[in-house]
């Protein structure tokens, strides 16, 4: 009699933490859009369209300063785009190779997008969040001082290639700038550059390196604001308005709509996936 009771107690002991882990994972992250669609409307809007949520805080006049609906896909489109980022036996998503020079980069016919930003901006976290539906993808990070900084190529099925560019900073060596510059200038299938800016601190001096490169080469690029979960609504709104003003006044090639994201809460991640699917020509809908 005592043995089955003991067995039950031991089983319960193992089941409780597992259940708690599952619950906390389900609450803290919304990797899949089907989970997001189950949320109450207000919470869902906040998670999927963080810029629209911020816009609600503005007076009607200053709403004009935020471009929130230039890219405004339906929930159905966002749901469709998710298939592009979901690893299946027919859609293999994997790390492909690394390169320190453009002539070592893989020669692929598919469209390419690249992610660029200063060290610590949250680039690897963002790429991991975008690839959370392909959990076996290893996003490599080489942060140790002295390690060679490389461009890392990821193949997303037959759809596109994603390139993780090395993070830049004060001590970016000259050959690193040459590598990034050559890539941006000469990569023929590069469709869009995603330039990451930390939403907590806004555009920093080092961010200008990448902004100037994109402007000089007349590249189409998009500003992604990272770590939005870290600030109060007021602080975030202030930063977003400042960056929006900069984009409107000082840039030519930057997409007018900003993409705020959090790799912790997944806010903005589904919309960004949809945008990438769209600009790489993998989301054929009339609405966009
Ligand atoms: P990278 O150097 O640009 O690749 O930056 P990482 O992705 O390694 O992130 C740098 C630091 O910021 C790490 O401690 C991350 O955990 C943290 N981080 C990255 N993204 C987010 C985010 O969206 N929210 C919060 N709160 N922290 C983040």
From TrEMBL:
Look up keyword Metal-binding and say if it applies: yes
State the GO CC annotations.
mitochondrion
The record ties this protein, via InterPro entries, to: EngB_GTPase, G_ENGB_dom, GTP-bd, GTP-bd_ribosome_bio_YsxC, P-loop_NTPase
PROSITE patterns attached here?
Answer: G_ENGB
Cofactor(s) listed in the protein's UniProt record: Mg(2+)
**Does the keyword Zinc belong to this entry?**
no
What SUPFAM superfamilies does this protein map onto?
P-loop containing nucleoside triphosphate hydrolases
Alphabetic keyword roster: GTP-binding, Magnesium, Metal-binding, Nucleotide-binding
Which positions fall inside the EngB-type G domain? 109-282
Recorded GO molecular functions are: GTP binding; metal ion binding
Name the family.
Belongs to the TRAFAC class TrmE-Era-EngA-EngB-Septin-like GTPase superfamily. EngB GTPase family.
HAMAP family from the xrefs? GTPase_EngB
Q: Which NCBIfam families match?
A: GTPase_YsxC (TIGR03598)
Q: What is this protein called?
A: GTP-binding protein 8
